[in-house]
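INFO  loader      accepted 1 record
INFO  loader      residues=87
INFO  predictor   begin
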Amino acid sequence: MPHCCPITTRPPKYPGEVAIPTGQAGQTRDGVVLCHRVRTIDLRRVTVFEVGGHAQYVTDRAVRSAVRMSLAHHLGPDIPAARDGAA
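INFO  predictor   done
INFO  writer      dumping tokens
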């Protein structure tokens, strides 16, 4: 099952939130990707895969990189194994 992060239009105020400008991923206003609120979605329940007649995704490399870094920090793979007790 795929995962996604919700987007809101309020200003960023917590770690794990990445600003996303108008025009990215179909945004009509500046927004924030809430990387600390990852959700799993069931594609059987999704009825529309496209907004406005074409697929929506983030194309800005800086935003994509910031989202990846935020997810890595939130999910913990940036913690060295020796520090978290993993073998």
